[in-house]
Amino acid sequence: MAAATTGMPMLAALAILVLVPSARGLDRAEFLPGFLFGVATSAYQIEGAYLEDGKGLSNWDVFTHTRSRGIDDGRNGDVADDHYHRYMDVEIIHSLGVNSYRFSISWARILPRGRLGGVNSAGIAFYDRLIDALVQKGIEPFVTLHHFDLPHEMETRYGGWLGAGIREEFDYYADVCFKAFGDRVKFWTTINEPNLFTRLAYVLGKYPPARCSAPFGTCESGNSHHEPYVAAHNMLLLHAAAVHNYKKNYQATQGGSIGIVIAMKWYEPLMNTTEDILAARRALSFEVDWFLEPIFFGDYPGEMHELLSSNLPKFTSEEKSLLRKNKADFIGINHYTTIYVKDCISSPCDLNTYETYEGNALVLATGERDGVAIGKPTAFDGYYDVPEGMEQIVKYVNQRYKNTPVYVTENGYSQHSNNTMDELINDVERVNYLQGYLTCLSSAVRKGANVRGYFVWSIIDNFEWTFGFTVRFGLYHVDYETQKRTPKMSAKWYRDFLMGSRPTDQVQTLRADS
Ligand SMILES: *[C@@H]1O[C@H](CO)[C@@H](O)[C@H](O)[C@H]1NC(C)=O
Ligand SMILES: *[C@@H]1O[C@H](CO)[C@@H](O)[C@H](O)[C@H]1NC(C)=O
Hints:
One of its GO terms (molecular function) is beta-D-fucosidase activity. The protein has 514 residues and is of the alpha/beta class.
């Protein structure tokens, strides 16, 4: 064997390794058969067509048009990714080798005026076509009923989530969806990240209806100490009512399951003190157990009762029993980051720091300890690359809500849009991020964690709420002028992982050849 011929393939192999970080130590076969691997999106962030085919205005349509100052680049989702007109997105999704796709239904597209108007048949037809296209390709639709976009009329009629009238509206909407799509949809979730939404909308006043009070923010009206808990109370009750309806009237014939999706950070104590260790637990309690304890055990966590007293609404005994009898079939975890927390009870924290939305829990969240960041920062303020948090949060939810299956419904990495095209496409940092988090998830699975699925946020760059288009989460780059989709390095990496053709295999093949 001549030296010249052995050198070449080795170099080629090394070039592949440098170009695309390998999926070594990570194997799809380690996850149970039937484990869902997918990508995720939401209606307002990708669909566009905001006034087409009978769709009603949503809270976000109105908010972005009337308060564009609240969006970093002043833009909106009128067109977004124009997904409403682009069925080839299903081809892109399919090309990755996923077996599931998580998306949300636009409530205002189905019921432009809520329960008091008619069902928009063009809206039903749009989702029918999407669901059929997915099912035909063997991709399991994983459907969110509500992902931040509410028919605007709900805001004017009920004060959004603050009015109890929203419960019947949601119940009606959910029923229309179960009836129309439930023959093909086997995975339903009621609300996406109600904990994050209520804090941004009613504590910080940054999402519609932009209500808040001092010291959390400056809004025309609102009460940051009370209203987020009223909104959450209504969300919990309408979630339970929808689960009740699904289980009573649809589950036996349609054979699906229903859950809820909660945004979950992992919290590390800033200092190794009893106070900060308790603060980290309290932060989880105010973020995660705020929703999951009522759903699984019928009431809010004890420490929320203690700290919030009369600001926390009370469940009647019938409501407690409705909750307990209609537990979610599974828990969706949206997990992106880990941060440090510091206690603010033993020594009060600076008022300026209340913009960290853990404020009511009397904890201060911070990304740094002694000037050193907890992980590599991402384009999203306060979000760091800390893969170990994935295993921790899954373990926490598994232990606390015993035997309830978990799906990681979102995990992903953001880039600044103002990077060069070359940097955006060669997204090595995203590949490293996803590889790290998936490796920790597979480690949790090896130790017996009850996890049934994992979804990357997102398949394509899209409208990121108050960030507008200034950040990009996609595995595919989108040129918003032409709507051209271009796969990033991370899309190729995810496909290689899912299809099992890994660069390490290629290296071995090349070595065997030489
Ligand atoms: C925290 O302190 C305890 C006791 O003081 C010690 O046993 C433990 O190793 C410390 N943990 C860390 C992470 O430093
Ligand atoms: C890119 O945008 C971010 C905010 O979106 C900003 O902080 C940063 O300075 C910008 N960088 C350049 C090079 O313009």
